[in-house]
Amino acid sequence: MLGARATADGTTFSVFTTTAKAVSVRLFDRAGSRVLRTLPLSSRGDGLFEATFADVHAGAHYKIVLDGDEVPDPYARFLPFGVHGPARVVAAVREPALAEPPPLDRWVLYELHVGTFTEEGTYLAAIERLDDLAALGVTAIELLPVHAFPGARGWGYDGVALHAPYAPYGEPDDLRALVRAAHARGLAVVLDVVFNHFGPSGNYLARYAPSYFTEERDTPWGQGPAFAEPHMRALVTDNVAYWLDEFGIDALRLDATHEIHDPSILREIAELAHGREPPRRVFFEDERNDPSVVEDLGADAVWADDLHHQIHVLLTGERDGYYAAYEPTVAALARCIREGWTYSGQPYAPWKGRPRGRPAGELRYEQLVTCIQNHDQVGNRALGTRLSALVEPEAFCAAVVLLLFLPTTPLLFMGQEWGASSPFLFFSDHEGEIGANVSKGRRDEFAAFAAFADPDARARIPDPQSPSTFEASKLRWAERSIEPHASILEVHRAMLDLRRRDAVLSQPCERGELVVEAHGDVLEVIRRRDAAERRLVANFGRAPTAVEVPAGARALHATPGWNGRALRPKAVVVLARA
Q1: What does R_g of the chain's alpha carbons equal in angstroms?
Q2: Per-residue pLDDT at 220 exceeds 90
Q3: 537 and 573 in contact (C-beta within 8 Å)?
Q4: Annotated catalytic, 285?
Q5: Helices and strands of the chain, counted as H and E runs
Q6: Would you say domain 3-88 falls under CATH 2.60.40.10?
Q7: Taking the mean position of all CA atoms in its chain, how far away is CA 109?
Q8: Residue 88's beta-bridge partner residues?
Q9: Per-residue pLDDT, 216
Q10: Residue 362's pLDDT is what?
Q11: Which of 49, 52, 285, 510 is most exposed, with minimal Cβ within 10 Å?
Q12: Distance of alpha carbon 144 from alpha carbon 255, whole angstroms
């Protein structure tokens, strides 16, 4: 592994470059501002420069010097002064994973952004809320990306130093403390990693060697990584091992794998994770609706966002953007649940009519990760509006009950469990021209939406670069005890308790054990196991509907609109037999 490696014998610095003939390491004081000395590295051939210094230890700050130019180390283990500043030498440690991770069908993911999860926005502050999450009934927390990215705030998807935990969240040991605290409560930790692109500011890899990137394929974020190039490939695979071995991470969620056009690197990542003891999980976010990412590339599960889209259009009636490709009917929702996703080869308008997807086939239900909210679906809205702010509490709770009744792997977005009033907006902290372009581009992208066709309406879209946009996105934990938040929280707790304890809902579900039907505006979903049956009936219409209750059946859970014989609009009941 390149970068700085501290041992009992000192620190070894290793640099690969094809652009420099002379390479040194420059040491700085604890403040990262005053140069202490500059030490030359020796050429080992083939672009490798290296040296060991017995008097340099963990805690030292440094930059690499390429032919006289100071350059940050893209292999840094910590960048306490930001992505353009000196790195800190960090000693390697081993951190164990969760000793007994749950089987895949027991995973309930809780997606959180460290910076807005608490008022403090740090790893250590997040620890104080883990008891709440364990009591809620989730089994894993998923951290949005923490590898170093520019500025004092951001989502994390424009990272540039893969090995360096983002400094504003805390020290690397603080992240380890968060992982250990989660494990102590039986919670697995999933880390969101981004390998399909690097951010636009602070990415110094090409200064060392342009061959890290390929001119043959661009991504929506810039020139694509060249995974066939040995050093880029090693950077990624070493990073996978780094998070799993040195931080005890239990699973990785790979961002936008449809933008990684070398399937062999995805397969290698999955093999690395599965080869650990205990084996780790790998989840792919992939918009192609292609079961081969599980069957051939080794993902344990894949994001299946069609369910979100179908529920969203049914409850809100929205048809802007990609929502136009989804019919707002119970029949369309039922087909999506039955088949795993909506698109399995049909023409897809957002792709200019090109076919999207393949039949989910033999994928197990738990290999599909589903949600009714996540950071993308909320944060990519102009005003960062949550579903719970768009529909009445009864409709939102119906969606919650449905999500947690299904045998797919559910994901909750932070604050969803109480219908948080705070939005989750898009925010960033880029400098100069990049920052100005982000502010302008954010408003321009909504010009085609009916609600923002007027320039005055677009002017109301919060500026991503403003600190107030970030502050507005922080969760308000105190509101959980007031209505309607308290009732929404109770629905989540009750359904997660059923999912954990019920004889049917707590078990894996085979293809033949799930029945999904649409009866006009009423959705019926049945899960069976042996002689037992659990039946969900949800009324998404505008008028009450009668429900036949067989002899011996009882209600396991119901929203207030159930009276024992009929459902009011947007009400739902879960019935049990045997």
Answers
A1: 25
A2: no
A3: yes
A4: yes
A5: 17, 30
A6: yes
A7: 10
A8: 61
A9: 85
A10: 87
A11: 510
A12: 10
pLDDT at 247 over 90: yes
Do the domains 3-88 and 511-577 sit in the same CATH topology, yes or no?
Answer: yes
What tens digit of pLDDT does each residue of 486-519 get?
999 999 999 999 999 999 999 999 989 999 999 9
Q: Report, at the CATH architecture level, how domain 511-577 is classified.
A: Sandwich (2.60)
Inter-residue contact 229 to 215 (CB < 8 Å):
no
Q: Where are the domains of the chain?
A: 3-88, 305-362, 511-577
Side chain identity at 78, as an amino acid letter? Answer: F
Q: What crossing angle do the helices spanning 306-316 and 393-405 adopt, rounded to 10°? A: 160
Q: What phi, psi does 273 have (nearest 5°)?
A: -65, -45
Name the active-site residue from 142, 192, 246, 255.
255
Mark 2-17 as b/e (b = at least 16 C-beta within 10 Å): bbbbbeeeebbbbbbb
Rounded to an integer, what distance in angstroms lies between the CA atom of residue 154 and that of residue 427? 5
Strands 281-284 and 301-303 turn out to be parallel
The catalytic residue among 285, 306, 366, 533 is 285
Tokens standing for residue 237: 């695979």
Write the burial class of residue 258 (CB in 10 Å: 0-12 exposed, 13-18 middle, 19+ buried). middle
Q: Check residue 450 and give its pLDDT.
A: 84
Nearest partner of 139 among 96, 182, 191, judged by Cα: 182
215 pLDDT band, cuts 50/70/90, is confident
How far lies 287's CA from each of 36, 50, 366, 379, 407, in Å? 50, 42, 17, 17, 21
Tokens of 482: 């007031």
Cα–Cα distance measured from residue 207 to residue 199, given in angstroms and rounded to the nearest whole number? 14
- Compute the distance between CA of residue 334 and CA of residue 329 in angstroms, rounded to an integer: 9
- State the residue for tokens 């705030």: 153
Q: Is the CB of residue 355 less than 8 Å from the CB of residue 347?
A: yes
User: For 318-370, what is each residue's pLDDT tens digit?
Assistant: 999 999 999 999 999 999 999 999 999 999 999 999 999 999 988 999 999 99
Q: Give strand pairing partners of 49.
A: 15, 43
Flag the least confident range among 170-179, 451-460, 481-490, 562-571. 451-460
How many Å apart are CA 94 and CA 115, to the nearest integer?
26
- 8 A C-beta contact, residue 314 and residue 541: no
- Any idea how long the chain is? 578
As given in the structure block, the two tokens for residue 265 are 């690197």
